[in-house]
Design brief:
13 strands, globular, 589 residues, alpha+beta, six-stranded mixed sheet, 36% helix
């Protein structure tokens, strides 16, 4: 034992001896390093005159040359069959975009074609072609990495295709077949029908969508803007391949079409592909009916949809009196809507109702302005049941004050800057530029509409805003629709005025009992005997042409509402959102 202990002690002493010289060498190396500069603050500093500018002084003294923005020029061509093509060459990336926009949508036809026209975008993509089954189309799109989009609305339809340059030939042929010779596979029709029927049956569970669709019915009656998919629209005889072909042959044909090409492709190559695509495309079966001119009604008063909810949805609006065009009232209405509630947290409604009073998490306004007739101006909020009437009154009060006093110059300038500063984002992609110009062509807008829009917005002042509010907004004429539980209201709903109860299940409107405010049922009312549910959610809307564009909303969403499925930055197909409310968002124009 003693021998082992002694051995261990010798080993430890030897290790220590070997480490000591290494430490000495390391310390010597450190001692030879140059001394670090002293960090002690000197007793005296250089005078400000002899010191170069730092920090904020540098930032404020910087100067820059005047920025100049030159928008890319889109070339207009005409090819076989007299089809106009908008072309913009861009070799930034090895990608090519093809677009086609068509005049016509479900609003041009009778209600019996509503389901077939609504199903069209989805089934153009999923229903196969005359020579290819749906699975074969899917396989080719996956193999060649093709991206297609299809969308439609009440007055127009849209299709797009994106591909890498090396696959452009096969991509153009496949996309042309999908547009020109759709199969409308029966199994895919049934899949769409089943999904849409399920959406119809669940629609009443969305109070916001329920409020929007019911309000559109109030303002526009049984016209296309007020249409929502019902189970009676989805009967098998209304969704046959023949019904779909009937609609297809009247919309998707060269006489209604304008095309666009953007990206890494020469015009000679693009023209050959487009000529081949149009070569065997049949003419329209017949001329489209003229578009319907829908004018909003003015059913002023308070309407209630009783629902046992902890939160109320309040929608209010009246005819807006403004049409889209190159005039002062239109541009002033864009700024007025932004100040009122269209600009989010900088708007008056958001500051007053949410930030100051804490009555709602979200509140916003809209002012639609279709070109052919007046739209509507109004607001929406969602608030807890107990504050429903207070929030409603506060919104009406904010509107009234804007009719009585002009906004401050800083408010107007902020609203203008939000639009003007977003101008450049309309030119992020070549496809975005081409698609927007196609929208202008279909809408009969001038080619320089975006430039006119920005200049018109910049001319608006405080007096213009008050004038357009005073001339076209009267809070006492508002149609107010509330979805909620009146038993939880702290103030009776009839304090806003005479109340009518909307029976959305049967589509009837019945007067409320004269004994006081209507009471919400303890449970949701049942479906009507024919199985119909209340109208539901309309499609996502979009900002006014001339403002920064949103991203695409998907392809052929089976909601029974106008579809939108455009490429990034593209203008949407015309839909009810041009006139009324759209699901979850506002139509900015």
């Amino acid at each position: 034992m003693k021998r082992n202990a002694g051995l261990c002690l010798l080993i430890l002493l030897g290790a220590a001896a070997s480490v000591r010289p290494a430490r000495v060498r390391a310390q010597a190396a450190v001692d030879t390093l140059p001394s670090a500069p002293s960090t002690r603050r000197p007793d005296t500093l250089p005078s400000p005159e002899g010191r170069p500018p730092i920090g904020r002084d540098v930032a404020t003294s910087m100067t820059f040359p005047q920025l100049e923005f030159n928008a890319p020029e889109v070339q207009e061509k005409t090819i076989s069959r007299g089809v106009k093509v908008l072309y913009l060459e861009d070799h930034t990336l090895p990608l090519v975009d093809f677009y086609a926009r068509f005049r016509g949508g479900y609003a041009r036809f009778d209600r019996k074609y509503y389901a077939a026209a609504s199903a069209m975008p989805t089934l153009l993509r999923t229903g196969g072609t005359a020579t290819l089954s749906p699975d074969s189309v899917d396989h080719l799109m996956d193999f060649y990495a093709l991206d297609t989009t299809f969308g439609s609305g009440g007055e127009s339809a849209f299709a797009g295709m994106n591909t890498v340059t090396e696959n452009v030939d096969v991509a153009a042929r496949l996309w042309g077949q999908m547009l020109r010779e759709p199969r409308f596979d029966s199994a895919q029709i049934q899949i769409w029908r089943g999904k849409t029927m399920e959406s119809v049956l669940r629609r009443r569970d969305n109070p916001t969508g329920l409020a929007f669709s019911a309000f559109n019915r109030l303002m526009y009656g049984d016209g296309p803007t007020g249409w929502e998919m019902r189970s009676s629209d989805l009967t098998p005889e209304k969704l046959t391949p023949d019904m779909l072909r009937w609609v297809h042959q009247r919309i998707f044909c060269p006489e209604n079409m304008i095309m666009g090409v953007a990206g890494d492709i020469s015009w000679s190559r693009a023209r050959k592909l487009l000529d081949d695509l149009l070569d065997q495309w049949p003419e329209c079966a017949e001329k489209l009916p003229e578009p319907r001119i829908e004018k909003p009604g003015s059913p002023r008063g308070v309407y209630l949809i009783p629902r046992p909810l902890n939160q109320s949805t309040v929608v209010m609006a009246e005819p807006g009196g403004v049409r889209r065009g190159d005039d002062e009232a239109y541009f002033a209405s864009r700024i007025a809507n932004s100040i009122l509630g269209g600009s989010g947290f900088t708007s008056r409604l958001m500051n007053r109702v949410r930030s100051e009073a804490g009555l709602a998490y979200s509140v916003s306004s809209l002012w639609t302005a279709p070109p052919e007739t007046q739209g509507i101006v109004g607001a929406i909020t969602q608030t807890r049941s107990s504050s429903t009437i207070d929030a409603t009154r506060m919104i009406l009060d904010v509107m009234k004050k804007m009719t009585e006093e002009p906004p401050g110059a800083d408010e107007v300038q902020t609203a203008i800057d939000e639009i003007v500063n977003g101008f450049v984002f309309n030119f992020e992609q070549a496809g975005q530029v081409v698609s927007r110009q196609m929208f202008y062509a279909v809408e009969d807008l001038p080619d320089d509409w975006l430039d006119r829009y920005v200049k018109g917005i910049q001319r608006v002042d405080s007096t213009d805003v008050q004038r357009v509010m005073r001339d076209h907004v009267d809070p006492s004429r508002m149609t107010i629709l509330i979805v909620g539980d009146t038993s939880r209201f702290q103030v009776p709903v009839d304090s806003l005025g005479p109340v009518q109860v909307l029976d959305v299940d049967s589509g009837n409107v019945t007067l409320s009992s004269p004994r006081g405010s209507p009471r919400s049922p303890s449970s949701a009312s049942p479906t009507s005997p024919d199985g119909n549910r209340p109208p539901g959610v309309a499609s996502p809307g979009r900002a006014e042409p001339g403002t920064p564009s949103p991203k695409p909303a998907g392809s052929g969403t089976p909601t029974g509402a106008p579809r939108r499925s455009d490429p990034p930055g593209a203008a949407p197909a015309r839909s009810r959102a041009d006139r009324g409310f759209a699901s979850g968002r506002w139509r900015g124009g």
